Amino acid sequence: MMNNLNAIRKEFHKDTPLESVILNRMQFKKYGKVQKMRQTVREIKSGTRMICRVVSENIHLLSKAFKNQFVIPEFKHFCDQIETIYDRCKDNDDGNVGSSLC
Hints:
102 residues, mainly alpha, 72% helix, 0% strand, elongated
């Protein structure tokens, strides 16, 4: 442990009290943790805003889906269109698999 303390002291002026050196390093580490927490909070707020925007723009669709009122008129025709799109795309092997899927 003394080796670690001496190594820390070498980073600073030899006359600097060891307590100050340790306190400064602890404050720096704490500052780094606070910065990471702030960034995380910003990301959460940003994600929350995005979710709120998407939900508010599509509230009528979500409301119908949750009430089992989300009906696709002419369902057979809809299924035929989806099948046609699938058949056109299924042989497409261009591009790469996304890195998040590997």
